[in-house]
Amino acid sequence: VTHLVTLIPGDGIGMETSAAMQEVVAASGAPIEWEVAPAGAACMEEFGAPLPESTIEAVQRNKVAIKGPVTTPVGTGFRSVNVALRQALDLYVNLRPVMSIPGAGGRYDDVNLVIVRENSEDLYAGIEFEEGSAQAKELIRFVEESGAGTIRPDSGISIKPISVTGSERIVEYAFQYAQKHGRNKVTAVHKANIMKHSDGLFLRVAREVAQRYEGAVAFDDKIIDACCMCMVQDPSQFDVMVFPNLYGDIASDLAAGLVGGLGIAPGANIGKDYAVFEAVHGSAPDIAGKNLANPTAEILSAAMMLDHLGELEAAERIRAAVRKVYAEGTCLTGDIRRATKSDAAPATCAQFTQALIAAME
Ligand code: NAI
Ligand code: MG
């Protein structure tokens, strides 16, 4: 059967990495047909909005999508397309496997961890009050009167909601994932010592869920700041890691840095009904349109998508080609040249893509 998949190319380097991804998927032999749907700067003119309703509907229709990065416009009043899409489709899991690729310039060769980031609440809920606004003033008065504390009158305020429901489903996902993929441990990461009613709640719920898996999957927890140090010092101690939204965002880029950078870090946004695969990185405006981007992250995201669709052989063909091209080391993009401190000439996005395709033949 042919799988119909929604492709949101994105903007910035998304145009280049998505085209590369399409070529590589075609060469893998996977029976994929694309339905292209726009988002981001690319469709502001035509639709007057960065995330058209028709794009959300396209994902709902096909259930599976892959998405290039989208620039978040600052100061236009529009919310991040990424956050809006995750919320509209209730994609509550952000799954980011982090694995060493020999030759990619990682600091370690034995990183094999999985980041499970809560994707629907926390400071990403987008509930904010501008400094000096009537709402901010009212909130400040309420806080004062409640005896909870004081807030300076010239404060902007962002709200950090973390629910029992949201925490339970993300931790449950992490344990299910561990069990399904033969992994041994889940680590919950938090700052429960300071934020008792948000992170503290998350930790309490995580401990409750962990009890259901006692004897099957081990559990421990770490405080986010100490966790960052441990990840840098010895990432091999981690297996599956589950985070509230913001810490997961930050730790994802840190983990990508351990294995060679954002250019090779894939991911997926997953909900009950839909899945949208996308790289960890953003639209990289500093190198967009110059044929310099590393498409590996989006290509490995496509491999995750093929796993999800049951096209396991094609997915493995892509991953094997990636490993081969990095191990050979003759045709790698500039980000990897820098990570490996190599003086060799960098390959363009297009040259690297051709090398991957050649490696699959
Ligand atoms: P970024 O991830 O786009 O770039 C950070 C640095 O990494 C830059 O120096 C960039 O050149 C480099 N880089 C990233 N991906 C690369 C690749 N594939 N190959 C080679 N080098 C790469 O993060 P930044 O600059 O903070 O964000 C740029 C825009 O992207 C912002 O508007 C942001 O909101 C948006 N963004 C979108 C995301 C998404 O669509 N899922 C995720 C993260 C950011
Ligand atoms: Mg991020």
Automatic annotation (TrEMBL):
Keywords: Oxidoreductase. InterPro entries: IsoCit/isopropylmalate_DH_CS, IsoPropMal-DH-like_dom. Residues 4-356 form the Isopropylmalate dehydrogenase-like domain. One of its GO terms (biological process) is tricarboxylic acid cycle. The keyword Ligase does not apply. GO terms for molecular function: isocitrate dehydrogenase (NAD+) activity; magnesium ion binding; NAD binding. Belongs to the isocitrate and isopropylmalate dehydrogenases family. This is Isocitrate/isopropylmalate dehydrogenase family protein.
